[in-house]
Structure formats: C-alpha cells, structure tokens
Amino acid sequence: MEQILEAINGGASGDEIAALPIPESYRAAHLLRSEQEMFEGVESSERDPRKTVHIGEVPTPELAPDEVYVAVMASAINFNTVWSANYEPVSTFGALDRLARQSEWSARHAQDYHVLGSDASGVVVKVGSAVRAWKPGDRVVVHCNYVDDQDPQSHDDAMMASNEMIWGYETNFGGLADLAVVRANQLMPKPAHLSWEEAACNALVNSTSYRMLLSPNSYQIKQGEAVLIWGASGGLGGYAAQYCLNGGATPVAVVSSDAKADVLREMGVEHIINRKTQGYQFWKDENTQDPKEWRRLGKDIRDLIGRDVDVVFEHPGRQTFGASVYVVGRGGSVITCAATSGYMLEFDNRHLWMRLKRIIGSHFANYWEAWQANQLICDGRIQPILSAVHDLEHTGEAAYQMHHNLHEGKIGVLCLAEGEGQGIDDPEFREKVGEDKITLFRRAG
Ligand code: NAP
Q1: Which of 146, 9, 4 is nearest to 66 (CA)?
Q2: Strand 288-289 relative to strand 328-336, pairing
Q3: How far apart are CA 317 and CA 89, in angstroms?
Q4: Hey, is 412 helix, strand or coil?
C-alpha cells in the first residue's frame, strides 16, 4: 500500500494511480470465524471487542465488475462494529454465508475472517469493468447500503429490497482497513473542506438520521415541531439535533452528562434534559415498568417547552421505549431505528391507540437519501461530530469506548492517513463554514 499512499500524497493523476499494482494483501481490522463462540454465556456488558478485533494482513479479493478498490484514508467506529465484535445478538459470519449463496462474486464474502467497518473516506484506486460514474483518483466517502439492483423493489426504495445488507457488517471487506472493496453505487464525493477523518465519520449515522427525520420514506419534521432526541450527543443524535435546528423544529435533547449538554448548547440546542441527574427509573425491575417515571419525564418536557413533543427519535430501545410512547403527544410519532438496550420492547398500547400515535420503523437510508445527507455536509450545512481519533491498530479499544458509552459524537479511525487534519482540499470553504463549528465535538472530546 506504500506505493499507492505515496502516489496519493504526491498528487499523482488518476491514470498514474490506476497503473499501480494492487497489493496481494492488506492490513485490516477483522474478526475470526474460529472465535465466534468466544462470548457464549457471557453478559453483554462483559463482552470485550479488544479480545476479538484483530489487526493484520488479509488477502485482497478480486474485484467484481461493479466494484472499486478504495485506498482507505480514514474510517469510523459504529455501534455495528460493537455488535459484530461482541457477537451479539448474532455472529455476523452467518450473514456472510447467506450473502455468499447469492452469486459467484458473492461467494468471496464467506471467509474465515470478517473485515469490519461501515464508513470510509479515501481515494478510488481501481474500478471494475462495469463502473461508469467513478474513476481512479476520485476522492470519496462510502455509504454502507449494499443493494442488489436486480431486486425490483430496490428501484422504488433500496431499503425495501429483500436482500439489502449493511456493508462491513453483513458483508466482508469493510472500511476499517487500508483497502476496501466497495460497490460503485456506494460512493459519494468527499466533502472537500473536511479532513479524511472528519469526512469518514458521517455517512452511516448522518444518512440514518436524515431518513428518520427528513425523508417521505419515514417522517418529515416540520417547522415548529418538537422532537425528543435520546442520546442527542451520540452518533445518530448529534445529526438529528442539527436537522431539527436547521429545519426550524425544536430539539429536546436527552443526554447523560453536563459535558454532553455543554456541547449541544454550543450547537444551539436550548432544551436539554440530563437523564443521569433526573435519575429516571423507567423499569422497577427487569420485568416491570413504572408509569410514574414516564409521567415525570413528560412533566419535565412540558416544564421545558410548555407542551408535549410531536416526535420521539428512538434508538435506546427496551430501557426507554415505554416512556417514548407515553411522552409523545396526541397524534405524534415515535421513530425507531434500533434497540441498544434490548430489542424486546414493551409499551402500554392504550397510550398509542387512544391518542392516535404512530410507531415508525426506519433503517439506514437509500443511495439518494445518503447522497442528499452527504450533500448537506459538502455544503457546510451539517457538521461532522467527530470527538476522538484512534489509529487502526486501536480499533478494538475504540469499539470498547463506544460499547461503554465513554464517547461523544463519533470516534474516527486513521487507516492510511498518517495523522489528523490531512486531506483538506478546500481550506477557504472550511474557513467560511467555520473551524469552530466543524470541530465542536473534537474540542470537547
Ligand atoms: P452512540 O454513539 O453510542 O449514541 C447512542 C446514545 O444513546 C449514547 O450516546 C447515549 O447517550 C444514549 N443511550 C445509550 N443507552 C441508553 C439508554 N439505555 N437510555 C437512554 N439513552 C441511552 O450510538 P449511535 O451510533 O447513535 O447508535 C445508536 C443505536 O442505533 C445503536 O444500537 C446502533 O446499532 C443503532 N443504529 C442503527 C442504524 C440503522 O440503520 N438501523 C443506524 C445507526 C445506528 P447519553 O448517555 O448521553 O444519554
């Protein structure tokens, strides 16, 4: 990879980059199939990604006609890195085996190793014979929707395709590596004013939040609506808060520390609830919820904004879902894309039907939604929320930090990039957007 990196750093042309040999192996953060039962019977909180994420050389797979090799400059940790590395709720090797049955090219994915990573920024170094829109030398970011365009439903909304998968989670050859294998329809232009690590941290969570709050495929927030955002300084929440502020909606942000509240205040969020100091106990024990505590949260929201929220941005799942359904106002919507604290949810259905509320399921984003979300970053209207940066060698530690909620915003990972702050192609625009805004989470992190 040294030759490729040298060419990129030396400003080589696309043709020069394309002429370089692709190495037979590359450095990657990966899991081993032989370890997939390592945590059987171990509590979720005791599972440790530092034990399962290995950094080492893996063989370079052949390139399918609709794919490109990306020299990965930076990547990011997502919660799916934690799920895969902790082998919960299931081992991702099962997904690789299912994918492998789809076609001859798909068979490459079933390996005894799984290269993780669902975000990346970097440079296209080689394109397959059927790739039309991209060429070697293009500076790109990668979104993680891995869709077969031969599925008819993918042409309405790619997220409805029956074989839709998440790259680097349900597929192999992901972005936490020096090289990634990416379908051409996952590529988007790299925001020119951002560094490699700032550019790499957005696509997965930004696109997911975009679809949840701005897409006709999920919900479209309106001016004046109030939105309760759980984990508002986390990955999804940090973008959801920005979408509310940009669109004239009122975010009511829930966080668990004063430091997180301060970051959001600087972003412009006025209404913040610290769930730690409020000490909500929505569950009396493992099986019994406490509606009094739902009501206490509802009162706290009304004390802040004078009324109920119209929307709840949900992802913690079991711990909060009953409260979310309760506190959203009459006719309101709970939009959910995850269940970090447990996926067997429980809520009082009377509050849902009597008050005509809705629950909307949402998952990642189709290419066009991801593209539009990326465009807002390119235009400087949505800012990256990068708070910490690790080397690829410390991927396991970075995933551990996320598993234990020791982070804010996004954790970046440097792959080929030799340090932070590289890859900024448009410093003038960066200055116009504002260094303070772009680095808000990094300064606090
Ligand atoms: P993250 O960066 O860890 O942020 C989540 C935030 O949620 C945390 O910062 C924490 O904030 C809050 N939180 C965690 N546990 C909580 C609990 N029990 N009660 C209340 N708040 C809690 O993670 P993320 O990237 O935003 O992802 C969140 C979840 O969404 C994960 O399960 C992930 O796998 C999933 N996800 C799904 C999709 C999809 O397409 N379906 C896409 C992205 C992510 P405070 O401690 O400050 O309150």
Answers
A1: 146
A2: unpaired
A3: 14
A4: strand
Instruction: List CB contacts of 442: < 8 A, sequence separation 6 or more.
Output: 386, 387, 388
- Structural domains of the chain, with CATH: 2-205+365-444 (3.90.180.10), 219-361 (3.40.50.720)
Whose Cα sits closest to atom 12 in ligand 1? 231
Instruction: Name which residue sits closest to atom 28 of ligand 1, judged by CA.
Output: 315
pLDDT of residue 340: 95
The residue type at 211: R
Token representation of residue 208: 């997911």
pLDDT > 90: percent of the chain: 98
User: In terms of DSSP bridges, do strands 120-127 and 139-142 run parallel, antiparallel, or are they unpaired?
Assistant: antiparallel
Residues with CB under 6 A from ligand 1: 78-80, 204-205, 208, 230-231, 233-237, 254-256, 260, 275, 315-316, 319-320, 337-338, 340-341, 363-364, 402, 405
Contact 290, 312 (CB under 8 A): no
CB-CB contact of 166 with 80 (8 Å): yes
This prediction has a pTM of 0.97
**Which residues of the chain fall short of a pLDDT of 50?**
none
Beta bridge partners of 421: none
Tell me the CA–centroid distance for residue 233 and ligand 1, in Å: 9
φ, ψ at 149 (rounded to 5°): -75, 5
C-alpha span between 341 and 386 (Å, rounded): 23
Contact of 165 with 179, CB cutoff 8 Å? no
Residue whose tokens read 């708070």: 387
